[in-house]
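User: Need the bound-state model for manganese (II) ion:
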Amino acid sequence: MIGVAGELILIVEDNDKNLKLARDLLRYRGYRTLETARGTDSVSLAAEQHPDLILMDVQLPDTDGVTALRRLRAHPATRTIPVVALTAFAMAGDRDRLLAAGFDGYLAKPIDTRRFVDEVARYCRGEWGG
Ligand code: MN
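Assistant: Bound-state model below.
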């Protein structure tokens, strides 16, 4: 089902395969996307382009996702943009740790191709958790 969502999603992910999959799934359903593999670039990109939602990999080559999140929250132009953690960590309690760090939500990798866009859509509508 092709939608006409139109929202702009910033994907911060250093794994090429995951980045392409997320981008393709979102674009197929009508989202616009911006992409970067670097946490530091996510702040300047978000400040310039004002995405509706940021998907943030937690493990990045330059700076980790939690640090990038802190910088986004400290920047006046980006502090209110919802940021959802994208992480391969499967340990119990990881979700709580990320939410405690200030992420608005959590999406587990590997990306579930049947559910991914619906979950992003819920976050875009401001429906957290569940
Ligand atoms: Mn990574």
